[in-house]
Amino acid sequence: MTSKEHKKHTDLVRPALGNYGRNEWAIVGAPCMYIKALADKVIGALSATYKCAYADTSHNDEIILAPGRLASGAVLDYTDQINYQQFNYNNAPTPFKLRQQFSEADLVLVNGNHQQAKAQVVIIYSNKEASLQKRLKQLTNVELILLAENVDDVFDFIKEGLPNWQNIPIYQLDETHKIIAFFEAKMQQAKPILNGLVLAGGKSMRMGFDKGAVSWFGKEQRYHVADMLKPFCQEIFISCRAEQKPQIDINYNVLEDTFTGLGPFGAILSAFREQPDKAWLVVACDLPLLETDTFKSLVSQRNVSSIATAFNSPDNEFPEPLITIWEPKSYPVLLAFLAQGYSCPRKVLINSDVNLLQISNPDALTNVNTPEELEKAKRTIHQKIANA
C-alpha cells in the first residue's frame, strides 16, 4: 500500500528576489574604501532614474552602546532627522524582513567583503588576492570584472573557478563611464514585462446585468478592452470570479480571483500572485470611452521606479486606480495595506510613490455603473461616430 505525499503548503510563484531585491550586485575583491567609492559613483549617476540602495557591515570593532533608546531595551528607535529618517533596530533582521526593507529599491549595491548578493562585481586588486580566493565559492554569478591600478590580468584562480570568465566584461577600475553604462544597461534589461488585466469580475449590482458583456463596439466590452491592450502587453488576461469562468470566450486568457471578496483590489493581488515579476496594466471593463491613445500615453510615460503609473482623475483630483500600470514592487505594498485593513487601490496610490499623469481626454475615464450612465455613454459614442 502506497500513500501520496502530504503537501503542507500551497505552491506559490516566488518573486525573483535575491538577499535584498531583484537587482543586486556584491562588489568584492578590493579594500572597503574602494568598494564604497565605486558604489557612490554608480548611485550618484543612477539615482535620478532609479531608487538605489547600499548594504554594508560596520567596521567599528569597539564595543559601544546601542544608539537611542535601544540601550534601554526598546526594539525600535525612530528619529526624524533634518535631512533623512533614521530607524535603529535592536534585533538583526531575518532574510524576509531584509527583503521587505529593501523592497522600494530598484538597484542594490552590496559590500561583498561582508555581505553576499545574487550577482557579483569582482575587483582584481593585487593586495587582496588571498582574501578574494577565500571567497571563490561566493562568486556564483560574476557579471563584471574590474582591474585595479597596476593590475594587468585576472587572477589564475578566477580563470579556473569561472570557466566563462572570458565572456565577462573586463574594465579598468577607473573607467567610470563604462561601469555606469554597464549598470544602466542591466537596469534597462531588467525592466519588468508588461501584462494586461481586464477587470470583469464585478457583480454589476447597480447596472442590473454584467457590465463586461455590454456590446459597445460590436463585441462584448471585456473582449474589446482586451483587444485594445494587445499592442502594449505581452499577455492579456480577463479577471473574473470563479463562477464567471465558463462564460469567458476560450480565445481569451482567464485569471480567476484567488483573493476573493476584495473587488478590484483582490483581482490585482491575484494577478501578482500568478506572475509576481510582471507589471500589470489594469483596466476596468466599464470605461467605454477609452481610446488607444489613452493606453499609449500611459505606457509611454511609465516609470518603473514608482510603484505605479496612473492618471489623475479629473473629477476629484485623486489617482484613478482602475486604469493603472502596477509595477512588481507594488505587490508587497498592496499586501501591507491589506494587512492593515485597507482594500482600496486608490488609497494605496494616494499614500505611495506614484507616477501621476494628466490625461488629455478626461472623457476616457468616464465610468458606467448604472442604466442611466449607460444610455448617456451610448449617446456620446454615437455622436462621436457621426462626427467622424
Give me the secondary-structure topology.
Elements lengths: L23 E5 L3 H15 L5 E4 L20 E5 L4 E5 L5 H7 L5 E5 L7 E6 L4 H6 L7 E6 L8 H6 L8 E3 L3 H14 L4 E6 L21 H9 L6 E5 L12 E4 L7 H11 L4 E6 L7 H9 L7 E5 L6 E8 L3 H10 L5 H6 L3 E4 L13 H17 L1
Parallel strand pairs: 1-5, 1-6, 2-5, 6-7, 7-8, 9-10, 9-12, 10-11, 13-15
Antiparallel strand pairs: 3-4, 12-14, 13-14
Helix pairs in contact: 1-5
Characterize the structure shown.
- With 388 residues, the protein is α/β, with parallel strands linked by helices.
- It folds into two domains: 24-57 and 77-189, Rossmann fold (3-Layer(aba) Sandwich), CATH 3.40.50; 194-387, Spore Coat Polysaccharide Biosynthesis Protein SpsA, Chain A (Alpha-Beta Complex), CATH 3.90.550.
- It is built from eleven helices and 15 strands.
- The protein has helices at 32-46, 95-101, 129-134, 156-161, 176-189, 221-229, 264-274, 292-300, 330-339, 345-350, 371-387; strands spanning 24-28, 52-55, 76-80, 85-89, 107-111, 119-124, 142-147, 170-172, 194-199, 236-240, 253-256, 279-284, 308-312, 319-326, 354-357.
- The chain has a seven-stranded mixed β-sheet with strand order 11-10-9-12-14-13-15, with helices on both faces. A six-stranded parallel β-sheet has the order 2-5-1-6-7-8, covered by helices on one side. Strands 3-4 form a two-stranded antiparallel sheet.
- Strand 6, helix 3 (129-134) and strand 7 (142-147) form a beta-alpha-beta unit.
- The protein is elongated, with a radius of gyration of 26 Å.
- The N and C termini lie far apart (74 Å).
- Residues 204-209 have low confidence and may be disordered.
